[in-house]
User: Fold these one by one.
Assistant:
Number 1:
Amino acid sequence: MKAILRVIVFVPLALVILFFAMANRGSVRIGLDPFAANDASGPSFEAPIFLVVLASMAIGVLAGGVSSWLGHLPVRRDAKIARAEVRKTRVEIDKLRQQALASLPADKKLKSG
């Protein structure tokens, strides 16, 4: 089921990206110096416009993912602490249960077991 869903989502997405790339093959000059007086004076390079757009989208997705991951750090830390407390509590409960069973008289142990 998941494989079919992936095909249904990713094949059209790949086709849209392919068609976009084919329609936007023209070159653009990318200037790397924001303070240059004109395009030719600063460091720059030429690239097809579809690469510029797709690279910008990829950088945006990565920046959003990193931002989200960093934003959830406190939640993950609290969850880790809570899991450790649960583990500790379970061990303590098992220890107390064993102590309670050990303190029962022999005839009650047979009935409860």
Number 2:
Amino acid sequence: MTAGNPLLTRHTEALDLFGDRVHAVRDDQWNAPTPCTDWSVRDLVNHLVGEQLWVPPLLRDGATVEEIADTYDGDVLGSDPAASWDASARACRETFAAPGALERVVPLSYGLAAGTFYCAQLVTDLTVHSWDLARAIGADERLPDELLAFAAREVAPYPADLAQAGLFAAPVEPPPEADGQTRLLCLLGREP
């Protein structure tokens, strides 16, 4: 489904990366804190499941934000968070991979956006939150080079806008010897 399209390849890689970490969460870690100061592990995974659930109605069905309203507010994980993640990730992946999906215009909360922009935004969010989840559960924190480079290119032009919109924390100054991953995380308000 993603053959030949670099954006869809990155999207699949980001979904898989986050999914691997979701499946690594132990039963006693769901209430553990994350680098996202207001979120536990469960809150973080719930946020990402909710994001994936928005994709089919917005992109495939042409629904508006107002029509979806509070459909995915609250707990969307239920009693099996990993299964909820798997189902939402599968639906999201299939929606973006459908013919013409990336060329569609999507009505997001801040206005109309190209399907490619929406997909790239989710790739970046999944990549950074994969690090957040890894840090919270003690998993491998290293981000794959391709996803790291993609996310860095995506956010470099507008980190202050992301912080102002409340999507990420305000940038912090990276140490002088910081590698690419550290610079990206600092740009998005993390202190690795």
